[in-house]
Queue: 4 jobs
Job 1
Amino acid sequence: MLSRAQEARVLEVLGDSPSGTLRTYCLEHLAAAVKIPPAHAADLVAFVRALRARGDCEARYGGFCDADGHDTDDLLVWRPDSPVEGEGTGSA
Ligand SMILES: [Zn+2]
């Protein structure tokens, strides 16, 4: 499990983009930005999955990582431009 502080930093890093701009991170660079050690990479993946399930982030495999400007086949995550506020929107 990630600590609360680490989870907060993930959200901070993902949310740190100008409005109207999507900033994508591969997991490697997201972990680097949040300073999560490689030993906790699986925890980061689990947290990203949970965020995605709640609609707090988007993720897909393959694409362009804005954090370091490279293409990747691995998981990319980003914060949607209009974060879903509240719970139970029920559209899923
Ligand atoms: Zn990257």
Note: Residues 7 and 47 are 8 Å apart (CA to CA).
Job 2
Amino acid sequence: MNKSKRPYKQYSLHRGDCLSFLKTLTSNSIDSIVTDPPGGLSFMGIDWDSDRGGRDRWIKWLTKRLTEAYRVLKPGGHLVMWTYPRTSHWTRMALDDSGLVFVHNLIHVFGTGKSHGKIVKSTDSPEFNGFSTTLKTSYEEWVLVRKPSEGTVERNLKKWKVGALNVDACAVEGAPGQPSRFPGTLVHDGSVEALQIFPDAPGQLARLRGDGAPMMNHVYGKMNHGTVAKPPRVDTDPSSARFFYCTKASRSDKNGGLPDGETNCHPTVKSIALMRWLCRLVTPPGGTVLDMFMGSGSTGVAAMLEGFRFLGCELSAEYYATAKKRITHAWASCMRLTRPSAFVTLKSSH
Ligand SMILES: C[S@@+](CC[C@H](N)C(=O)[O-])C[C@H]1O[C@@H](n2cnc3c(N)ncnc32)[C@H](O)[C@@H]1O
């Protein structure tokens, strides 16, 4: 069998720089990429998060890897990438330079953020006491981009099985008796802080125009997207329920799958529920998810629980070892719950 075409097992993990790893993959072979790269912030002073000598150098570093990611993605394939607000424009530049096309910014709002700013306590200018140099971080952004499709979306889907988002599988559950909702670009953690952001006032087209009056297209003139408004919606929670709900990573998210007494020491573990939702959104059923900045393996755990194949790469030996344990455990628990034949059984290489 042609080596490049040889199927891999349900998951395949690699250690090293993802640039070398990506170069080993066949062009147009990956269905989706869901990844959480360094942010160039020197977060907690960690080496792998340094800015590599400044903005331009950092962007060049990431662009090199994203150019390879572009090559291995199937035409129409999506990539979702975490960014930090302060350097999200760097990440966006690298995504742009690699040829990937912007689709959405997905915003994850949470109440657990902290202010890292300095609170003024001054005897010289007591009128400024209590002022702060920053606000509390309340959200993170995930950028959703796409490799251009070949021809129409329909043609691309037929040939490559990618090119559109699986919105049905990611619909937000409605209140009892109510239809589920089309997923939006906002995700929240259900905390009091996040819920306060949502006003109780009506905010949906259906509710605002629920009088049956014709919709006038004052701004876009000839755009003809319907003439009669939908009936008003009955919501039990009109403010926030229409957004996907997802907390930040919990202790069980972080340590699940590790032997008793062992803890996940990765400083930026992502929530499994969020990673499952993102993988499901951008990956066709049974498809292959790639995370080239795998860390402790949250994307891989999510991919296993969703029945996808997974390819992961991580630079650090310590994080790689943790990822391997977590992903193996997730895979094994799926095997216990599911008919093994439902998965592709392939020779283990690890
Ligand atoms: C933000 S963390 C990912 C955390 C992960 N989402 C989790 O839940 O554990 C980014 C990871 O990228 C890794 N990394 C940095 N440079 C890399 C490179 N060139 N190739 C592969 N991995 C790299 C770091 O060691 C770090 O673990």
Note: The longest helix spans residues 317-337.
Job 3
Amino acid sequence: MTPTSGRRLPWDWYDGAIPANVHVSSSAYVETAYSFALCRSSRIGAVMIGDGASTYLGTMFDVGPEGRVTLGEYTLVHGARIICDREVSIGDYALVSWNVVLMDTYRVPFDPEARRRAVRAVPTGQPRRLDHGGPGRPIRIGRAAWIGFDSCVLPGVTIGEGAVVGARSVVTDDVAPFTIVAGNPARLVRRLTAQEMADGR
Ligand SMILES: CC(C)(COP(=O)(O)OP(=O)(O)OC[C@H]1O[C@@H](n2cnc3c(N)ncnc32)[C@H](O)[C@@H]1OP(=O)(O)O)[C@@H](O)C(=O)NCCC(=O)NCCS
């Protein structure tokens, strides 16, 4: 991966640069640097975008100070929100569709009084937003997995190689490789056939 970071994209409508600690392969495509407007990670390689990967309009890397997001080779992210305080990794050839939310952290305290305190801190916060952070539990999306539109993947979930998540699913548990899951909560629809698995490899 050849890093081409800290640069402006010649085709971009947004007047901002890709952060210096974000690494984009020279053969990857990032539609707009606005995708990194919420990236506050101080890690080296806060976001790593692999060879031939693409991220399109609407994709947001909402990455907290300790977070790291990795996109493998030929990964395609078509307008997802990736909320990461720890680690989100998306494998080679994986497809993440429109309006998908991948969150390795809930960002908001569960305790009601702590939640009220967090909300009261918003008006005087800099920047003015609810950003409580959290420990985070890694999300791992396997090679050639496909996440259907409007789906949500919750903290700690691993989605296996070649798995398919149906549109508008809420994925609360790990998904076995080469299976189709769907619904809220996402449940097994079926296993891929041997032929489908062979085609996908
Ligand atoms: C998951 C998906 C690929 C499955 O397709 P399929 O193998 O043709 O599955 P079927 O349509 O035969 O459905 C099988 C069962 O799963 C259910 N099902 C399928 N997709 C579902 C979904 N998104 N949510 C809930 N249930 C779903 C069907 O109702 C059916 O249930 P039944 O057996 O009780 O009747 C497809 O339904 C889907 O959601 N595709 C998403 C496409 C997408 O996001 N495209 C964006 C471009 S990247």
Note: The pocket of coenzyme A is lined by residues 95, 97, 148-149, 164, 166-169, 180, 182-183, 189 (CB under 6 Å).
Job 4
Amino acid sequence: MNKRELYEKAYGILANVTPLVSDCGQLCNQACCHAIDDDSGMFLFPGEEVMYEDKPHWLRLETSNFTYGGGKKALVAICSALCDRKLRPLACRIFPLTPYIGHNGLLSLKVDPRAVPVCPLARANTPEKIDEAFIDAVANVFKLLARDREFKSFVLSLSRTMDEQEEVFRKFTENPSKKRTSRAIRRSYYR
Ligand code: SF4
Ligand code: SF4
């Protein structure tokens, strides 16, 4: 399966699911789509740029300083207006979840600690429950992408960055004990 086929399949799996059955944007005024500055965006997963060869007018791609796989630079997708939902990047479709590779080398799914300041659903004390159908679909996408070596290498680097950020969040929250700041969801382990 080439990268286009892989991402088309991933987008398809996530086409009809959202974090809540109702519109979660009403909880936060769509905070994840209102960037703090014009240059913040979402990482593209390795090779995902094939989905944007036609360059939609609402999207620009920039090279980031985040590296993986021995120095490859990740791309960031920066949207300048409300997007065409059918074309939104994978990172937007899975938010606030993320793939994660632990120190045991296993790939899993968890709530992205980087989402905590933005997304009410990511916080440990939120009353809303993320929809199980959404979690299942995201897990299926990670299972699919786990066959791709570049994806795993990207997630490995991302996971170490998330570990560092989670540590910083812990230090600066009212909760410097061992309590989690992000909601605990783990699902589906694969090699
Ligand atoms: S920030 Fe979270 S709750 Fe708000 S729209 Fe985005 S995913 Fe939904
Ligand atoms: S691409 Fe779409 S879903 Fe993603 S942040 Fe921009 S407006 Fe939101």
Note: Strands lie at 42-43, 59-68, 72-79, 97-101, 107-111, 187-190.
